[in-house]
């Protein structure tokens, strides 16, 4: 049972259904975020449906580019033989 | 004392006969010991055991309460899983070291006084260093030495702190540090923070863990940092500094993880990040926060062990560890992929996995304590966690470009260990009740509310969207990243250069002076003496007086030079000592 499931995420032939499933999940999450009850919202942004989706996406992009900037421009990334 | 069997003793004494067993007997014995320890922890009753006196100090070998029981429970469970994972090893050395390591960690968790704690603390450092040495390559041995040096230094700092604190407080009993922190408390805190891998004291972890043996790294990922979390929770709850250190740490780990190419070093940076949640939780210090930190440590040990087992299985089978050289393994090792992913979803805090029920507690505690910034930063780190452990690492390790590697599933014992860990990650996620019941404070927290679930999924799945869009930007690059170990790796080199060049040259110059100036002078004075002798007794007194004058002049010039150096060095040292003293004292 495990092999077909893992295969679904790896095999080229499932690329299209995989992508469709992914987009469907994204849409469902946004819809669900509009429907859930928000009685205990502590902060202003928590009352906005979809804030977590935007924050997640933004965090991901920010982390990738800030890290790569630090790695390439600020010189954190070095050749593998740096310490040799 | 009769109804109490110290679990540390089971492991440490239990380690001794391992070399004398072989084959199936040894395997059964190796499994038996952790099982006995789990039973001993389950049977344990809160209380104080082993009170005695040593050098006029009160010693308390074991102080058992809810906090120590939670950690002991997960330590013994993880010891069993890690032992099963390592069952195929033919040598006894690693098993012995692992058992002593686990036993020492348990010793720390139950220690009722600082001396007992310190003893086991050092035991952990030495036993775990063996797991890196055992890898045997030059690279690993160098990393192991650095690991040992850092921990020995940390141990000295801790011991200094313990002595100062003991002198000030009049007791060496281990408990919450009360009142304003004094110099001793700060040194103890520094020793603890080093083992918790709090930046800038984090580099030993990410330096050494990826160099350890496949099975050794599984143990290492579980015990050192989490005993540090335990002692912080015990001694320093509610220290504001920890909130910020923890928050920075959570982001520090994920930023470095973006740059990392070595699969286990990437996971090691995520230990730094995850321990950040725990340190922040301890810093917040409310009941919910300490519960969150404790449960997160519990969940973390299991899923991080699982992730290290998954990555270790890949290294074991392929012999490769760089993401830029891996890929396309999913067809050959689907079970490993599935188990690894259970750990990845757990660390990413997907609903119905263990990380969800513990991490959300820490974040809720930050929100409840009105710390918006901490909450947002920790949420951002969650996004980064899924990005690397859940997406980048499995994508480049198991999927991605097929490198045509010869691969197969790892040995059965490895699969069983991963399976058990994966099952626990899911079971805790679905039924958090038993874990919550173990926590030090009563739990009034419901992880599965509609908002919690939809927010978590929103953050995680839209992180996945970002991953899909910017996939190319994440392609692993064959580089290493500079971390704070730069200071001592380059510093040691500078020191050696100094010892070999200027210092050696200075020594040569000094001996040159004696050869070129002092020897001729001696020759000269001898000749003068002879001439004086020849010139008659009259001249003797004057002659001797003149040569002493001359010789004194030369000697004075020589000596004043050296003495000024000494004095300068002493003054510089004195100023440095005063500065350090002033800073620490404040």
From TrEMBL, chain A:
It comes from the Bacteria. Keywords: Membrane, Transmembrane, Transmembrane helix. The chain crosses the membrane at residues 21-38, 50-70. This is Uncharacterized protein. It comes from Sinorhizobium medicae. The lineage of its organism: Bacteria, Pseudomonadati, Pseudomonadota, Alphaproteobacteria, Hyphomicrobiales.
UniProtKB/TrEMBL annotation, chain B:
Its main location: membrane. Signal peptide: none annotated. It is a multi-pass membrane protein. Keywords: Cell membrane, Membrane, Oxidoreductase, Transmembrane, Transmembrane helix. It is found in: Cell membrane; Membrane. It holds the Pfam family Proton_antipo_M. InterPro entries: ComplexI-like_HydComp, ND/Mrp_TM. Residues 111-380 form the NADH:quinone oxidoreductase/Mrp antiporter transmembrane domain. It comes from the Bacteria. The chain crosses the membrane at residues 6-22, 29-49, 69-87, 99-121, 157-177, 183-205, 212-233, 239-259, 266-285, 297-317, 329-353, 373-393, 414-437, 457-474, 566-585. PANTHER family: HYDROGENASE-4 COMPONENT F, NADH-UBIQUINONE_PLASTOQUINONE. This is Na(+)/H(+) antiporter subunit D. It comes from Sinorhizobium medicae.
